[in-house]
Amino acid sequence: MTVDNKGEPGRIPRSPARAMVLPRPSALALDWSALDGREWLRQCLAHEIAQRRLFPWLAVCFGLGVVLFFQAEAPSLWAPLGAFALSVASAIWLRERLLALALSVGLAAVFAGFSAGIVRTAGVAAPVLTRMTIAPVSGFVEAVEDRDHGQRVLLRVVSLQGMSDAGRPQRVRVSVRRSDTLSPGQFVSGHARLLPPPQPVRPGGYDFARDAYYKGIGAVGSFTGRVRQAEPPYAPDWSLWLAARVDAGRNALTHRIASTIGGAAGGVGAALVTGKRGLIGEPTNDVLRAAGIYHIVSISGLHMVLAAGTFFWIVRALLALGPGLALRWPVKKIAAVAAMIGATAYCVFSGSDVATERSLIMTLVMFGAVLADRPALSMRNLSIAAIVVLAREPEALLGPSFQMSFGAVAAMMTLVPLLQRERAESRPATLIDRGLSWAGRSALSLVTTTLVATFATAPFSAYHFQSLNPYGLIGNALALPLVSLVVMPAAVLGVLAYPFGLDGPVWTVMGFAVAQVIDVSAWVGAFSGSTLVVPALGIGGLTLLSAGLLVLTIPASNLRWLALVPVGAGLAFAATPPRYDIYVDRDGSGAAIRDPGGRLTLVGKPSGFVAGQWLRADGDRRSAEDASLKAAARCDRLGCVVETSAHRSVAFVQEAAAFEEDCRRAAIVVTRLDAPDQCRAAVVIDRRVLAERGATAIRLESDAAGIHSVKKGREVRPWAAAADARSSADRETPRPARPAPEQDELDEDLSSAAPD
């Protein structure tokens, strides 16, 4: 046994000479083993397995299968199911080999996601209107939303004149612009102007037709005359009866909250509780968007967590008041069950939108982990929630709500170990010191998580909305404490007090907090550059940045450093986004052409919504009414001609008499008419091309033109086959001065994304 200089056993005495010869270990020493790539990879994979981080990749593989389904045309169910069975059999056969097992299970998840897409599409199959129709329609009112000018109604159709049962849409969404007051559950009839749900206005744009198909909506439009209430031909089924009763209760509570609070705060407060956003004026929407906090009016992750957390805290606090109950009963688990029930009721009452249902599933998984004595906030639970959501609604993967929500949560979860790290300093002695310390930690946590969520959702915001809010960090830091500590607890208490008629004071308190949120938003939104319009991010850049986010958040080892590769490549794509030189509307009524100055010039009569989408995709802040948008076009009654930066002329033909000259002199001809077969222009986009390909965009190259369209020829996808079908009479009729009915639908659905 050795003895050191102090007489302690177990240590080797160290002489001064030895201390001078041997260098001391340095914390900055390089780890040369990292140069051995295979050894480094082996160590990282071993750490991933030890931390059980392979499971989250199942959700990624499942999502990949969903993406592949939406790229396929008319797939058969037997093929992915057979491949799934083979993959499972391979996993069982090769279970002793880790790499083969992981690959087999991953492939099984891919084919499972593909199969889920086929099953979901078949399950919601319903007729879609194929042409514009003006005819009497009757049906049951399933849901009503009051708006500034009239109402928006979801009608379950019983009859549509001139259309058989096989071709009649099951549901239509129509606007009522007169003073008629409709209620859920009524049977009504009237003349309506209905159109097929529109496809995107540009390649890569928002596909309302797809979303409407999965919601069971086969047409959109508006009532053109008086809407009459009539006797129903039969009693509604239980699903319609339940939906109508729930919507009637939501409307009653919406008006109760809005009338009690009043003003802009009343509409926002009602939306936070019931999900009805129709009473929020557009100026208030713009203020919330500019401050980067518009997500608070879309009931999703933030609201669900706060509501469930309030139920959890109330039940646990009440049970803790009794020492006998607290010692003998699993109070925490009982409170978790109460929170799950309360969150489910909140989801049903708020309308059960896609974002709300997704948030409910995440919340149920988290509290289910509490019941199983597992950590509630973990990457595994987030992956389970993602798989459940995608198995139920695979189409949600393509929407901004799913992408931004799961991306933000995954990114924030990587900070949990840092935020929960124990500090070495001593505990504050006085109550004031403790309060200040808690406030400092809370502020740092809020700022850090908001910053991380902002960066994580920026690629999706640039892709879907072409906008960034650089001051969103300030807006969220100032507004979210009010929402978390006052607004949402008051909302829960108000709903509980509502049946007793004692909710008035609660709504008043909530309205005061909501008014402060709006004031903060107005202050932040007034900053110069509060909203940046950026060119639309291409699908390549979005894919690379999404892959980088996955590699950064899922691994627990140094493998996350590999995220630098896709993130760097994605940022390079984002720095040079692909821009189109010509946009053509889906029915040829208008186009946008890049002039020699590099800016878009409008020709024809595209709707304000369509023109606005083109401008945002190009990173152009001008409004559709800006006079400079037509300055570079030479127009007469026959059409317009625009010279491009590549010294090629583009002719927009409005009258057939212009074909003879324009086909001879222009390089590209765009028209809503049928171009003559002998037209010698290099590129001709006419009625027949648009009917087959939908909205089209052209990128001019040095010696060619790259043409990109919404549809891939004659598609067989159920939501795409009829989306751009129009009668010839509708094509020859000028667009009405008022907005087309589908524009209201597009505006509101595009605003429903919530990065919570």
Protein described:
By secondary structure, the chain is an alpha+beta fold. Helices cover 49% and strands 13% of the residues. The chain contains 26 helices and 18 strands. The chain has a five-stranded mixed beta barrel. Strands 11-10-9-17-18 form a five-stranded antiparallel beta sheet, with helices on one face. A hairpin with a 5-residue loop joins strand 9 and strand 10. Helix 3 runs parallel beside helix 14 and helix 10 runs antiparallel to helix 12. The longest helix is centred in the middle third of the chain and has 34 residues. The N and C termini lie far apart (62 Å). The N terminus and C terminus are likely disordered.
Structure characteristics:
49% helix; 18 strands; 756 residues; 13% strand; disordered N terminus; five-stranded mixed barrel; 26 helices; five-stranded antiparallel sheet; disordered C terminus; alpha+beta
